[in-house]
Amino acid sequence: MAKLVSPSIFSLLLFAARLSALLVAALVLIWALHFNTSFLPHHNPDDLIYSVLHPLLMVIGFIVVTGEAILVHRWLPGSRNLKKSVHLCLQGFALACGIFGIWTRFRSKDGVVANFYSLHSWMGLFCVSLFAAQWLVGFLSFWHRVEVRTITLRILPWHVFLGLYTYGLAIVTAETGLLEKLTFLQTKGNVMKRCTESMVVNGLGVGLAMLSGFVIFAAVSPKYQTQQTKIMYSNSKRLDSY
User: What rounded mean pLDDT belongs to the chain?
Assistant: First the structure.
């Protein structure tokens, strides 16, 4: 059996994850609000608000909230149903932000096809679609009947794996978006390679990488695996005995 993570180390891990999330939220707010001229649309300047909302919704509303939802099972006291309900609500809020965030990019008069050309856009649609499927499975399993628990126990490892995979995919998608946006601005000469905005965007990318590392490490730590394994194996034995 894997050695349990001590409470002090785990508290430090949670603190690092929350600090990284705070850093990411602060940097994306500074970038979107202080340097909002970089988001000015070429065709319709009136759509500036939607261009600014896209990074805010996808980074804070989707990625940061999803990371907190993943950590709910680790720190929230109370029953397992309480943790599942809070996890489901946070994931539902993140999904709504993700859908609305994509809509802000595809609402222009040029249509969806005109904006659906880059690797970032392809990965974004795939990520949100997979996230929606995951949330639907979680929602149905939360309201399942007792007779369906065997199926739930069988899909739980896949649900955990796909959840972490989707979260990692969201981080990678955000990184491609930052790279695409900054490269475009620097190529057009709107932003210098060594300037405050470039440092903010690069810092945001590093912060996202740090955040994903802390969140995923907390989710797959030996303490988490041991507790989940106990739950799955004990319930499986109970069901197999009938």
Answer: 83
